[in-house]
């Protein structure tokens, strides 16, 4: 093949070296606009997983890197005058300049043509004369920009300011310096990369940056390669204690806002993007160098395995995209955590450290226990002490008081519509469904959305509480839960609004009924989506009637014995549609600004709260974001939660979306928990109200991690309970927990232990048990170089 590579960074050079080794007949040329010794930044860091792939692909490069690595396993977190160390992580770093020299030398030895200080020819000219053109020209990629109509990039410029610096203080481990200043929180991400230096990244929210006066050079026209010396001098002063007499060095160091780059496509004909040109991930979770070199590995392998370029590029994108998108989701969680770090400065130091370490949701409690059991023990003890409890149990099995209601543990069976009622009456199916979930160990079991009127149903199969027959049937279910389990049972009340009169879920979710339908209503005559019914705009009289329906249903629910009531103000149903500017275009007192859009939902809440027994809690489920432009955001959610709490809500159940068919959710594991986290720290913690996290929380490790980090007080788990009705009790068995937080029904007591697994009588050779394997790692390994590394040839 004849291959053109635009960009001589690590990704482009590594790809060139790999391809030349796969077939020396390949004719490969690399264009790089900078000189060979020009490099910006200081150190690059790699994980063990990435190094494994590099070691397998090119031993010469791997060995050269290994000779230059600074290695360590510890993370030191400095916060509120205390330093905490967590071990067992596994890092390797080296000088970026050394890495580039190593890759350049390897390419020259292999016969790759390197053209430095040279702009690449026009992309279309290259495509016409080369078999493959690789865009490896970084975050400001000209290749990507020239073909934007094909790649369709999105550039998400974030809210924090950061600056890459270096220091001659050689850190022994990864360092997080979290500094509270008169202007706000400023943090440093630091790590060693050689025997003589460390990377020193300063980061702060833009609001803090402005208050601190760092904006004095905003708009200054720096020459290429120049640094913001004014800012560097201020950093030296601000972190004098942390630098401990050492120097700070600049290298093209200026304030930046991190930009997350995404592309809908990564290849176009014989043109392909790799590295930062295709995607970026925030530096707090990894390095662009790591991702770029992984891209190069995958691209070279796919080209080697497929007979044609198109098939190879399609395979490359199919292989790498899921990995990169997963990394970007984790990086998004991490960067948002640091953007909002000021929310957490009130946390006790051990919890703060755990929160920081688990910020991306990739590292969890179980991960940390495996890596550093001593630190995990400290986290457990601190959490129990904060709850005023003696002894240590898994966080999910600690009791919780919600208003006047005592819960045995912190697991909730989330409301899940079953569409299996007849004329709104719950039957034997609901008895078995909710009864088994209650006997499965959860602290609280929630009903599906129970509709307050016939025309408030979503489908003909939805349950209701608009007549006494329904109330009697619910009483039977509530009684069973109370008599046969330690769980409490909550009633979720709602009205379908513009999402009503639709088919059963398995017949066509959100599709209108073909016949026998009823009129749908909403705050404005705006349909939920294409093909949906156009709702009639509610009048004041309609609103009074619906509020009365909620009150009547609440009275029946109280009489049926429900322990808790949740008002459903999420997922685009009636009260949710009043809250959202996407569904509410009213021009009266119930539309327009958020204060007006809140008016009717708060009226309903107040009316329900008045008739609901005072000793039983009332909570509210909200959609924290609409996932569309011009819709509600997490900032609106904070104010919505604040309003409901001010009116007496005991908890906010934080979901998101389903307000419009146009939504674009950022799905992923525990993807909604950052919204709960924000509401808990900005509103609920100061008021005593609880926050419930929900959304793709699938493992007990997720639940424990969220609770220990202080992101929520309770966790609602839905689909996992459909998969395993005894999910909570099985989680107790998996964690070898026996206690009041997980009580097996006496009839099922014999199942309280995890069944034995298949065994083998094979005996491993004794010496293999005595000798540490190549993957064994000391819990605490620190970088303490005794001599400088060998010079680069």
UniProtKB/TrEMBL annotation:
Pfam families: FAD_binding_3, Oxidored_FMN
FAD-binding domain boundaries: 121-328
CDD domains documented for this protein: OYE_YqiM_FMN (cd02932)
Domain spans labelled NADH:flavin oxidoreductase/NADH oxidase N-terminal: 396-732
Entry protein name: Bifunctional salicylyl-CoA 5-hydroxylase/oxidoreductase
Natural source organism: Streptomyces rugosispiralis
Lineage, top ranks: Bacteria, Bacillati, Actinomycetota, Actinomycetes, Kitasatosporales
């Amino acid at each position: 093949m004849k291959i053109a590579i635009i960009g001589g960074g690590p990704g482009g050079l590594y790809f060139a070296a790999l391809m030349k080794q796969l077939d020396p007949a390949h004719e490969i040329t690399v264009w790089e606009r900078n000189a060979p010794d020009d490099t910006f930044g200081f150190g690059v860091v790699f994980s063990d997983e990435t190094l494994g792939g590099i070691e397998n692909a090119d031993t010469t490069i791997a060995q050269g890197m290994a000779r230059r690595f600074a290695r360590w396993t510890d993370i030191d977190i400095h916060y509120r005058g205390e330093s905490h160390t967590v071990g067992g992580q596994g890092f390797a770093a080296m000088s970026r300049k050394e890495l580039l020299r190593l890759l350049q030398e390897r390419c020259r030895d292999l016969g790759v043509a390197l053209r430095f200080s040279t702009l690449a020819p026009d992309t279309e000219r290259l495509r016409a004369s080369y078999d493959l053109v690789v865009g490896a020209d970084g975050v400001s990629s000209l290749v990507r920009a020239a073909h934007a109509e094909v790649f369709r990039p999105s550039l998400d410029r974030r809210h924090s300011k950061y600056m890459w610096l270096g220091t001659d203080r050689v850190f022994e481990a990864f360092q997080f310096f979290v500094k509270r200043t008169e202007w706000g929180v400023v943090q440093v991400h630091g790590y060693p990369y050689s025997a003589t230096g460390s990377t020193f990244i300063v980061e702060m929210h833009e609001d803090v940056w402005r208050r601190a006066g760092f904006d004095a050079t905003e708009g200054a026209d720096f020459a290429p390669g120049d640094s913001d010396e004014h800012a560097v001098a201020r950093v030296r002063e601000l972190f004098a204690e942390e630098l401990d007499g050492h120097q700070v060095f600049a290298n093209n160091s200026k304030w930046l806002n991190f930009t997350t780059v995404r592309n809908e496509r990564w290849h176009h004909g014989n043109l392909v993007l790799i590295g930062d040109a295709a995607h970026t991930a925030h530096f707090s979770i990894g390095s662009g160098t790591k991702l770029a070199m992984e891209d190069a590995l995958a691209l070279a392998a796919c080209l080697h395995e497929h007979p044609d370029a198109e098939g190879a590029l399609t395979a490359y994108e199919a292989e790498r995209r899921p990995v990169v998108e997963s990394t970007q989701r984790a990086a998004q969680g991490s960067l948002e955590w640091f953007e909002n770090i000021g929310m957490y400065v009130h946390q006790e130091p051990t919890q703060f450290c755990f929160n920081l370490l688990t910020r991306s949701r990739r590292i969890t409690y179980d991960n940390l226990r495996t890596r550093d059991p001593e630190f995990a023990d400290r986290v457990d003890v601190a959490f129990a002490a904060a709850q005023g409890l003696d002894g240590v149990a898994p966080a999910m099995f600690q009791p919780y008081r919600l208003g006047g209601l005592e819960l045995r543990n912190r697991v909730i069976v989330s409301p899940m519509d079953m569409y299996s009622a007849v004329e709104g009456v719950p039957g034997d199916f609901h008895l078995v469904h909710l009864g088994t979930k209650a006997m499965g160990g959860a602290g609280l079991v929630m009903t599906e959305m129970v509709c307050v009127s016939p025309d408030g149903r979503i489908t003909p199969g939805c349950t209701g509480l608009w007549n006494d027959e329904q109330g009697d049937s619910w009483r039977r279910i509530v009684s069973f839960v109370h008599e046969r389990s330690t769980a409490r049972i909550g009633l979720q009340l709602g009205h379908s609004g513009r999402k009503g009169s639709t088919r059963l879920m398995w017949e066509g979710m959100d599709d209108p009924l073909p016949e026998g339908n009823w009129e749908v209503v909403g705050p404005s005559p705006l349909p939920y989506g294409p093909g949906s019914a156009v709702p009639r705009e509610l009048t004041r009289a309609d609103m009074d009637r619906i509020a009365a329906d909620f009150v009547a249903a609440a009275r029946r629910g109280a009489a049926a014995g429900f322990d808790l009531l949740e008002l459903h103000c999420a997922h685009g149903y009636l009260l949710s549609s009043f809250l959202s500017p996407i569904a509410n275009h009213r021009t009266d007192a119930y539309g327009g600004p958020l204060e007006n859009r809140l008016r009717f939902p708060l009226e309903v809440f107040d009316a329900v709260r008045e008739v609901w027994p005072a000793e039983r809690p009332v909570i509210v489920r909200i959609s924290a974001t609409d996932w569309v432009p011009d819709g509600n955001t997490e900032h609106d959610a904070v104010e919505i939660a604040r309003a409901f709490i001010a009116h007496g809500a005991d908890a906010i159940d934080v979901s998101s979306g389903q307000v419009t068919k146009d939504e674009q959710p950022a799905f992923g594991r525990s993807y909604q928990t950052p919204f709960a986290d924000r509401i808990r720290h900005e509103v609920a913690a100061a008021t005593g109200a609880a926050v419930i996290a929900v959304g793709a929380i699938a493992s007990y490790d997720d639940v424990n991690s969220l609770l220990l980090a202080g992101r929520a007080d309770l966790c609602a788990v839905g689909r996992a309970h459909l998969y395993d009705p005894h999910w909570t009790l099985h989680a107790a068995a998996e964690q070898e927990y026996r206690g009041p937080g997980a009580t097996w029904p006496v009839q099922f007591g014999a199942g309280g232990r995890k069944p034995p697994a298949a065994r083998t009588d094979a005996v491993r050779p004794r010496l293999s048990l005595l000798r540490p394997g190549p993957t064994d790692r000391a819990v605490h390994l620190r970088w303490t170089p005794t001599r400088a590394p060998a010079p680069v040839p």
